[in-house]
Amino acid sequence: MKKLLITAMVMALGSVFFMPEITAQLAKTAFREENVGKTWAPKMAYRAGVINMRFWRYKTGRMILEKALQTFPKEIWVDEALYQIALCYEKSGEKDVAVAGYQTFISMYPDHEWRGQATKRIDTIRADN
């Protein structure tokens, strides 16, 4: 029983460690020409970007999300992807690009529930500069 528990823990830690790499590969699969029209591809690409963000891989997450927006511009998550791209820029230290991204998000989605948060992030960035 102890060996099984140790094995399970090692596998769990390994999967967490490799999750960003796995999701980056899943995104590449979603962006393949033969898969773009499939129903699972847009969601897989979006989730891959978000997961990379959650693992502090902001540049990779941003690049995946930007490609997802280009490849799947009419998906339901486009608004959230725009916000998250701005957040990636902010977390990567590219404050001016982040402010522009948040402003684009606010202008395109003025009634979005995250509008207030985007405004606060802009105010915080400007106050820090």
Topology, element by element:
Blueprint: H1 2-31, H2 41-54, H3 58-71, H4 78-91, H5 95-108, H6 115-128
Helix pairs in contact: 1-2, 2-3, 3-4, 4-5, 5-6
Sum this structure up briefly.
This protein has helices spanning 2-31, 41-54, 58-71, 78-91, 95-108, 115-128. By secondary structure, the chain is an all-alpha fold.
The fraction of residues in strands falls at under 5%
| Major beta-sheet overview | none
Oligomer: single chain
Tally of distinct domains? 1
Q: State the share of residues found in helices, binned by percent.
A: over 70%
- Helix-strand sequence: HHHHHH
Mean pLDDT across the residues is: 89
CATH superfamily: Tetratricopeptide repeat domain
- Name the CATH class: Mainly Alpha
Structural class: mainly alpha
Number of helices: 6
**Which ranges are low-confidence, i.e. pLDDT below 50, for 5 or more consecutive residues?**
none
Reported CATH architecture: Alpha Horseshoe
Describe the structure using short key phrases:
129 residues; mainly alpha; Serine Threonine Protein Phosphatase 5, Tetratricopeptide repeat; 6 helices; globular
Please, could you describe this protein's structure?
By secondary structure, this protein is mainly alpha-helical. It has one domain: Tetratricopeptide repeat domain (Serine Threonine Protein Phosphatase 5, Tetratricopeptide repeat). Helices cover 78% and strands 0% of the residues. It has 6 helices and no strands. The chain has helices spanning 2-31, 41-54, 58-71, 78-91, 95-108, 115-128. Helix 1 (2-31) packs across helix 2 and helix 4 packs antiparallel against helix 5. The model has no long low-confidence stretch (mean pLDDT 89).
